[in-house]
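[Archive record]
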Amino acid sequence: MALNRVADKYAATFLSLLSEKSADAAVGEDMQYIAESLKKVVQLRRIIDNPTVNPELKGKVIIAIFGGTISEHTVAAVNFLVSKRRIELIGAVAQSFNRLRDMKLGRMAVKVSSVVSLSEDQTEEIKKFLEQKYSKTVTMTNAIDENLLGGFIAEIGDTVIDASLRNKLRNVKSKLLNSTIPLN
């Protein structure tokens, strides 16, 4: 939890330094790209996580690998994290940066899980409901979860809206078990 707060502080600093919307979008995408690459390439992750490797060397490795594909603002962010000896936080900083940028722009990302792919009408209906509820622009992704009986589950950060059939049946069962029926 403490690392998330540290990542939030760095992300907020980077976001406040970027005045152009296109620049902060590029930095968010670049940092996410670097973080995903670190997850996939085990050898690179070992270098970044190794406390005996000099932080400046870690930064040089990242810039050498990604330098041609990332923006100058991202290079500056990487160098800043290196100078503060926090380069291992780049994945968490990327997530925080994108979340804070979306908040700043009045957007929120929603992952909706359903047993089958949602139709355009269903997607629009859920999107409209969430936009009215949260007063934000919603970007929605649909994931298939074959374990659901029906309905959907929407995940918005730490918030979960469970409109699944299993949850509705669970609620009915709970009400029936907790209710009293007169015997006369």
Remarks:
- The longest strand covers residues 107-114.
- The helical segments are 2-17, 21-40, 42-49, 55-66, 72-83, 90-104, 120-134, 165-178.
- The mean pLDDT is 85.
- The chain has eight helices and four strands.
